[in-house]
Design a protein that fits this description.
2 copies of one chain form a homodimer.
Chain A: H1 4-11, H2 15-22, H3 30-43, H4 49-56, E1 61-65, H5 72-87, E2 91-95, H6 101-111, E3 117-120, H7 127-133, E4 140-143, E5 153-157, H8 159-172, E6 177-181, H9 188-201, E7 206-210, H10 216-227, E8 237-240, H11 243-255, E9 265-267, H12 274-277, E10 284-286, H13 289-305, E11 315-317, E12 320-322
Parallel strand pairs in A: 1-2, 1-3, 3-4, 4-5, 5-11, 6-7, 6-8, 8-9
Antiparallel strand pairs in A: 10-12
The structure holds a DNA duplex (30 and 30 nucleotides).
Chain lengths: 347, 347
DNA sequence: TTCCCTTATGAAAACGTTTACATTCGGGCG
DNA sequence: CGCCCGAATGTAAACGTTTTCATAAGGGAA
């Protein structure tokens, strides 16, 4: 392995000068710098990251602690984070698939000292967990969590606002009996969406809430349950707390011979790519997931650069409603049939 | 920050003993070890990764160099890699979104010294590139590349075999005029799939090849082109080189008023989750993407453990055909309508 | 008792950087 | 001509581990 000493010897300077030349420090003659850079290129010298980290106490790496990598949501999220990290010259260490709180703790601990900051999104993380496992010195940004922590920044999508707006939209479409397929009870996003739905309905329409866990399977079950109801008791609209459940529900409804949106309207939440591809395309709440990742990273960087700065107020990213055919609003307007191409690029 | 010295002082032993106790070395009294572990827990001591790496020359991290993180393919791939890495106690450093060869080189260089091994999947990587930018000492596994390299292991999905089998399947369904929507020309997977298609048709049926680039958009364009043909010249089956193009094509066909599979059959390649959700569900070639990631990591670990071992023959992961409704084979069998639930879990 | 061997522990040298401090050198000014 | 000052470079001390080698303690055999 070629070290800085080899470069120094070859360029006939001291290691200090090589280090300075490489780190862009002033006070190195242009001529000397050129000579050094030449040797560096010739020898294919690459600084040893660990050695550098040891003395600078910086790893140039940020860690992302995620609950899972399954599905399009996380794919998008990581993409957003990666893009932002790359733009800042930071590396990205990912860790996911934590079954329980114990595993999460282990993962968090293992990242200790390998990263300069942490992006955390995990259902197992609460205030007590953080206190016990996250050293106060490590900057962190919490995503989609209820933990209102003075020590760490938090960042959320506007779950409440999005669900609220969707409920109002459904009312505006003329629906008077709306069923909500909820997410897992412990989940912060899920709770906020439910609350938004309730408040958005405002007591003006009949509502009911079915259990779900964000999985396609649970949406399918809820759909079957609703489809089996006698027509008088059947809701005229269904609002699933995320798109995967909406998709599952859609299949259950179709299977039962019900047409969406003619017999029953259906909407979701997240706007994952699949939402555009099902038939009919799904009206949903768009969460700019990649942007969320991007914003989280930016916030983390801000905290890393000023660790003692004020706690930074919890930020909320706005959501917007995306109206497609499934809600029974734009259903007749066939003009927008190729609207699914609008997001074909990598926005 | 609490270091090993603090632990040593507190436990009244030398740093050497602490190190030994933590690394599970024999020859540390059970009593001493207990005492040390107690102090470690009390002080919340976590070894400094960089310092450790500096001396052991191990980072316990593997890097994944990917072309992009966009779409379900890479999401699945990363998941497979992450799971396997976690099982081995390795960290995962990801780097993606490299627009050109230059960026790829930078990324590769930046990973130097931060990882113990590299998983590489990138269109910009060829033999010359590797020679110039990858030090011979760093174990690496190449995925989906044509580079048959003595220095590095390679791993591919059975693109040829899958496409070959699909072509035969389409013939078996009675189709006699098959159009193929190809992937990008420089892409190894794409070339293999095209070759498999050609050989699978075996000159027995009429064939034609349309350009594509793996994007939904390009599939859409190809679909429009085919739909615009007079009925006598229209193919009775379309085989897209990946699922995203098949989905785009499906929308173009539907938009043009053609019914799949009645007017024209359609199949894809990859079996990304979306394939199950479109209408009709897409017959496709299943690439066990997560398994591919898993296998790649295992192969990399093998190389890391025995860097001088024989080159390890290029491995190919088998593919299988998944028959759904879009190919006009099982179209009438409505029984399997809920077949999309088969993969609802995290297989 | 003396010697040697085993076993647990300690002392100190690496590992490859960065950086505070010291040194050298050349030149303008008194 | 000697002085001092700034600029360029060198010297060496960190950074927190692991690991080699040395040492101490205890015990059995001669």
């Amino acid at each position: 392995m070629v070290t800085i000493k080899d470069v120094a010897r070859e360029a006939k300077v001291s290691v200090a000068t090589v280090s300075r030349a490489l780190n862009g420090s002033a006070s190195v003659t242009a001529q000397t710098r050129r000579r050094i850079l030449g040797v560096v290129a010739r020898l294919r010298y690459v600084p040893h990251g660990a050695a550098r980290s040891l003395v600078t106490r910086r790893t140039q790496t940020i860690g992302a602690l995620l609950p899972d990598l399954f599905g399009e949501f996380f794919s998008e999220l990581i993409r957003g984070i990666d893009l932002a990290a790359r733009a800042r010259g930071l590396h990205l260490l990912v860790s996911s698939s934590h079954g329980d709180s114990e595993e999460t703790a282990t993962a968090l601990r293992a990242m200790q000292g390998r990263v300069d900051g942490l992006l955390i999104m995990s259902p197992h993380v609460d205030a007590a967990f953080l206190r016990d496992h996250l050293p106060g010195t490590l900057p962190a940004v919490l995503m989609n969590t209820s933990v209102a922590n003075k020590r760490h920044a938090t960042l959320n999508a506007d779950n409440y606002g999005g669900a609220h707006a969707m409920a109002r939209h459904l009312r505006g479409c003329g629906h008077r009996d709306i069923a909500f397929i909820a997410g897992p009870e412990g989940n912060f996003d899920a709770r906020e969406r439910l609350k938004g739905f309730r408040d958005g309905c405002d007591g003006k329409v009949r509502t009911r809430v079915l259990r779900g866990d964000f999985s396609e399977e649970s949406g399918y079950r809820a759909g079957r349950e609703l489809a089996a109801l006698p027509i008088a008791k059947r809701p005229d609209a269904i609002f699933a707390a995320n798109d995967m459940m909406a998709v599952g529900c859609l299949f259950a409804l179709t299977e039962a011979g019900l047409r969406v949106p003619d017999d029953v309207a259906l909407t979701g939440f997240d706007d994952i790519p699949i939402a555009r591809f099902v038939t009919p395309p799904l009206t949903t709440v768009r969460v700019r997931i990649a942007d969320l990742g991007h914003a989280a990273l930016e916030q983390l960087v801000a905290r890393m650069e000023a660790p003692d700065a004020p706690p930074a107020p919890a930020r909320t990213l706005p959501c917007e409603i995306v109206i497609r055919a499934s809600c029974g609003h734009a259903a007749r307007k066939r003009s927008g049939s190729s609207s699914h191409h609008r997001r074909a690029g990598r926005d």
